[in-house]
Predict the 3D structure of the following.
Amino acid sequence: MTPQPRKPIIAVYPGSFDPVTNGHLDLIERGAQIFDQLIVAIARNLEKDPLFAVKERVEMLEAVTFELKNVEVAVFDGLLMNFAREQDACVILRGIRAVSDYEYELQMAMMNRKIEPQIETVFMLPGEAYSYLSSRLVKELARLGGPVKGLVPPIVEERLRAKVGVS
Ligand code: ADP
């Protein structure tokens, strides 16, 4: 019997991306190398007081992933698992930076598995240089006028400068 062609593996990488950092980008590049298609999905209703509007977050993500042809950017409302099913995804990609991420990520992965056992959560580690980096830290630094160069892509640096006046 001839083997059936394998179904493309579609992964969803969900998050707030407020804003996208070089750590997110590192993970997106790693994910794009192993999955056939990677959907970076911005959760519309996660954070109550975001710095960037969803539209701005989409624009920044689209700009920084432009050259990755198997990566697309989307926005979702409500349950991640519903969105993942609609996209025909079989993987949720999440990043783990330090042990501190593990507990929350474990809880969420287990809950998501309960909701949809057919979809696996896959964790990836960023490059060492990004293992301390978070959107929250970047925003704090920017608000205090600290340098964010090297922590976020240039387009994000520009937008941060326009928004909070980073040096
Ligand atoms: P959320 O609010 O869902 O945590 P984030 O945008 O902060 O959204 O993060 C989305 C995902 O990216 C999470 O899995 C998070 O652990 C991961 N992540 C964030 N920053 C980094 C980083 N520097 N390196 C690797 N993964 C990261």
